[in-house]
Specification:
168 residues; alpha+beta; four-stranded antiparallel beta sheet; three-stranded antiparallel beta sheet; binds zinc ion
């Protein structure tokens, strides 16, 4: 079985990173609620990913870019909402710069031209900085590695005992 994951190709320059994700939240354009469960993307045919039914009864069609998956379009007959994963997961160029500012971790320096899973990247940052990422609380369902990534972006707000351990 394919393991659902979020992959980043580290390009650098103004393009930053290219995302390809097979696990993500989806939203109902009618009632504006996120589905409780994350969606596991397996494949698409000409961009058509699948249809899901919301608790409100609405059927929602899911459309991707038919290539690397960095957004999902959730649409009904009347309305559509595009979820941009770079924005939603805070994996845009500005966030990578934010990480460098907060933790001194330069993603481009460490992983340029690599394709890396976000879960591996989080581990790599933890190892390099000595910080353990604790998942942030989120109102919308997000993959655990995204919640850890967002915690890292906030910088080293460490409990006192963790700081003590680091200075040993
Ligand atoms: Zn709904």
């Amino acid at each position: 079985m394919q393991v659902p994951k979020i992959e980043l190709s580290i390009i650098g320059g103004q393009r930053g990173v290219q995302l390809n994700t097979t696990v993500f939240p989806i939203i109902c354009p009618k009632c504006n609620n996120y589905f409780e469960e994350l969606y596991h993307h397996k494949s698409s045919r000409y961009g058509f990913v699948g249809t899901v039914t919301c608790n409100c009864g609405e059927r929602v069609n899911l459309i991707d870019s038919d290539n690397l998956v960095d957004y999902i379009k959730c649409h009904t007959d009347k309305k559509s909402v595009v979820l941009d994963f770079g924005k939603l997961f805070q994996l845009e160029l500005k966030n990578i710069k934010q990480l460098k500012k907060q933790l001194g971790y330069d993603l481009f320096e460490h992983h340029i031209n690599e394709t890396i899973a976000l879960s591996d990247l989080v581990e790599s940052i933890e190892k390099e900085t000595g910080i353990t990422a604790t998942s942030i609380k989120s109102k919308i369902p997000l993959p655990v590695e995204v919640k850890k990534w967002m915690a890292l972006l906030r910088g080293p707000s460490l409990p006192i005992n963790t700081l003590a351990n680091r200075s040993q």
